[in-house]
Structures are given as C-alpha cells and as structure tokens.
Automatic annotation (TrEMBL):
Coiled coil location: 195-222
WD repeat positions: 3-37
Organism of origin: Chelonoidis abingdonii (Abingdon island giant tortoise)
Annotated keywords: Coiled coil, Repeat, WD repeat
Record protein name field: WD repeat domain 55
InterPro entries reported in the protein's UniProt record: WD40/YVTN_repeat-like_dom_sf (IPR015943), WD40_repeat_CS (IPR019775), WD40_repeat_dom_sf (IPR036322), WD40_rpt (IPR001680), WDR55/POC1 (IPR050505)
Gene3D superfamilies: YVTN repeat-like/Quinoprotein amine dehydrogenase
Name of a matching Pfam family: WDR55
Acetylation is among the record's keywords: no
Family according to the record: Belongs to the WD repeat WDR55 family.
Amino acid sequence: MEMRQHEEYISSMAIDENKKLLLTTSGDGTMGVFNIKRRRFELLSEPQSGDLTSIALMKVGKKVACGSSEGTIYLFNWDGFGATSDRFAVKAESIDCIVPVTENVLCTGSIDGVIRAVNILPNRVIGSVGQHLGEPIEQLAKSHTGQLLASCGHDQKVKFWDISSLCSVVVDDYRKRKKSGQLKALSSKALGGREDFFADLREEAEAAKEEQEEESNSDDSD
C-alpha cells in the first residue's frame, strides 16, 4: 500500500492501541491519519507554521502530542484530528524527538542538546533530564521497565538517564509558575553540572596524559 498525501518528508509515525490508525508527522507542518485496516487515507490536519518532527499518544490515547521545529508541542484530541486543541511553546530551539514516559509526562530532545521532561495538560516543563553538552539530540528511547531513558546525539555517544522519579510526578494545575527562567535540573548531571563537567575535564586530562606518556615512551625507545 502506497499513499502520497504529505507534500514533504515524513518525520515520525505512531499507531493506536488497536493497530487501526497510523498517525504521521511531516515537514509540511501537517499530521496525517491513515486507516490501516481499511487501507485508506482519512485526513490531514491543518498545517502548522513549522515542520512537525515527532509524535506520541498521551492521556490513554485521548491526546496526540506533536513536536515541531519551532519548539512548540501541538496537541490534538483523538476525535478531532483536523485542528489542534492546544499548543505549548517550550523554551527550546526545536523539538526533534519525543518519547512518552507516563500518560501525562513525556521527554523531548532538542537541537540545543537538552532533554526536557514535560507534563501535558497542565502544560509544564518539569525540568532537564540530561543533555549532550550542546550537541543536537537525534533520538530518545525508554527501557521496557520505564526506569531508564537512552539518548543519542551528534557527540557520537549513547547516554542513559534515570527517569524513575518521573513516574511519580504530579503537576498541580493550580501551582503558580516560577518566574525564574532557569531550567530545573532533575539530576546532578542534567544540566552539565559540576560533577559531570569536571568528570569530562578529568577524562580529557587523563587522555592527554596518556598521549604524552606514549609519545615519551616512543621517544625513549628510539
């Protein structure tokens, strides 16, 4: 079966629990809905201002969350795919990938290298799970136990983060938003904290020392 409803590339896909509807996001700014069982195209959503880059089902399948190249999360009702029901601008350059952690919380990966935990309805950025030190994040994946999050970025590293605390997070709808513009770190290494920073420095220093010793040994042997 081949269908060509999107005008641009397809960036991500998701399927419902009944394996009936395939949802797609595209560079043309639309979300596509395809009925797999009936082998037919259903509809395209209204186009958004930026590329839609990622998609996830939330709220026990009642909501669909789409990330975008402009750093906004667009929400669709399950029975209203044509138009967004809500949108939430995350303070990020982009949202390139998302993965659901619970029915209310998802993690986003961005071009700025930061992994953010975000609560959906009420829409809140909970904090930073981790980062790839300024390198764009390509993909996120959750372990089958839900305790760990894996991330890969342009730094050629796969990193693992403990997200077990996110399973018990409850965001109060009436909680006052903090006026501070700083992103809360959910671990000591989440924002490239001192421990992580100096650990990287130690690794670089040790590598440089080993190179010097190797060069010294080669000179002595000559």
